[in-house]
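Researcher: We're teaching a course module on how sequence relates to structure. For the next exercise, students receive a sequence and then see the predicted structure as tokens, so they can try to spot secondary structure elements on their own. Here is the exercise chain.
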Amino acid sequence: MRSPFERRLEACQRRLERTDAALAVLVPGPNLTYLTGFEESPSERHLLLFVPRVGDPVVVAPTMYDAQLRTLPIETLAVRLWDDDDDPLEEIEAVLAELLPAGDGDPGSSQGDDAPTILVDDRMWATFTQDLRECAPAATFDLASRVLEDLRLRKDDVELEALRRAGEIADRVSLEIRSRGTDLVGRTEAALASEIERLLAEYGGGDPAFETIVASGPNGARPHHHSGDREIERGDPIVLDFGAFVDADLEDGTGRYPGDQTRTIVVGDEPADKYDRYERVHEVVREAQRAAVEVVEPGATAGAVDRAARSVIEDAGYGDEFVHRTGHGVGLEVHEPPYIVADNDRELEPGMVFSVEPGIYLEGEFGVRIEDLVVVTEDGAERLNESPRGWETGDNVQ
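Model: And here is the predicted structure for the students to work with:
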């Protein structure tokens, strides 16, 4: 049976055929991990995966990665190694000579309309792009997202299972924090953020998917507040935005998928008097999120989801205080397509996963954001988070 990565590589090659590109070249990052299961941080060393339109994929890498690369579940993957005292461009030029159409003796030397197109990783360092241009001087270059974006948009069953587990872990942590109620009074934002990350790990998560946000009182009006030394007071609204990576069950390969949930809670039986508008604002945001999720189904556009949330907030008179898009795709990256923004006409398809996270931010007062991840199903949407969305804590959770 073929591994998930062999199926993904074949799908990539089919898309290269449709775009008439000769090959894609990828560097360490989410695209390479998606196609091979190999995960490594970018570095100054030349480690490149070549996926030709026709033929077997080739990876050029430093010798130190030999053992890791040869355990990948891809039978057709050719591994070409270079040592630190070698010139890696010689190996790259040799690979290009094999994979690009024959010309006048130099790789990619066909001219005019016959010049081969090389799709490079969108985040490839300029130095590697320049090396490829030097090795294939007549080739034209474009971005690998032309073939990989659509592949990564629709999550397969293994990816969805990982994202569901990440959602369940976030739900457990959300319930635990809510249950503490007024025990949170006097804790600093930073201390509570550390406690959330400890719980994420205790309940089965890996590294935090992003910097945990604990934004209390007026700090909640900053959508990407950095948790600080402000002490939580009784009656404070608190924006909690967190999640952890979990490993997907991908045989011998790697794939980490994140949770991403936001709740806005109040410590105590009710908001403090200085937050007199809080309950009304929270209900507006909650209704905006509900309206947006109800729009999600195959054939609806990403922009329609954004407009559904935004119209509720605008009708309530807070349009100017909703200062970001309604959501973003989630997969190997915490932020990836599809982006849930007003002018995005991309139609939703089953298997797409993205956040729905409207918010209202009143500078100097407080903020409210409610976020769930959703997956597009054959006939609607499935929420990957089910913890309470109200503001109540302690014994008053709803």
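Model: If you want an answer key for the exercise: The first strand starts at residue 23 and ends at 26. Residues 46 and 128 are 7 Å apart (CA to CA).
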